[in-house]
Protein: Helix-turn-helix domain-containing protein
Organism: Rhodococcus artemisiae
Amino acid sequence: MSKTLHNGLEILELLAAHPNGLSVSEIAECIGVHRTVAHRLIRTLEAHRLCRRDEYKRISLGAGLVTLSESVEQDLRTLARPILEDLADTVEATAHLVVRESDTTVRAMMVIEPRRSQVHIAFRPGQVHPVNRGSAGLAILSTLPPTADERPEVDRARRLGYAISAGEVVSTTIGISAGVPRRVGGAQAAVGVSVFDATDEARIGAAVAAAARSLGDLLH
């Protein structure tokens, strides 16, 4: 690997975890380089508008990342938005699109809040959590062949057509998700909702599964 590029990407990941910004010294300490090296890396990222420096000389992510992110799975997000909006309004709960980022993690790519619900759960896209925790990851795993070490919840999701988890990603929150049928070469993804109460699990699960199938049909 390129050590310089690796350090630069580490800075971006570090800043993503600290939205209020960090000083050059703090960045240098966190990624394990000399302050001079950190300063040089930051100046390069600034030149590409990937990070910025405020009046207090604290570094945070820059607007250039927005331009880069717009093309990431753009077709997937464009097709998913109306489906998620309809799902959120139907279930009156926050809907989300989650994609598998690596062998061990998934990331929330899109979050849509309901327009007519008085109370709902709110969170930002971009959150990362283990693929084997939370309904979205379990739903994605359920679209794959069974493995010897998979959780019983994955097999249950495979049989029901949707996965459910409680408090595994956010405490007091219940997630219900269904895997999106995979397109060739496409990202493994799941559509789901976050609710406070799952007494109506079957109805919500059916709505989530239908939304996932609709998105899958559009992607094929």
In short: The chain is about 45% helix and 20% strand.
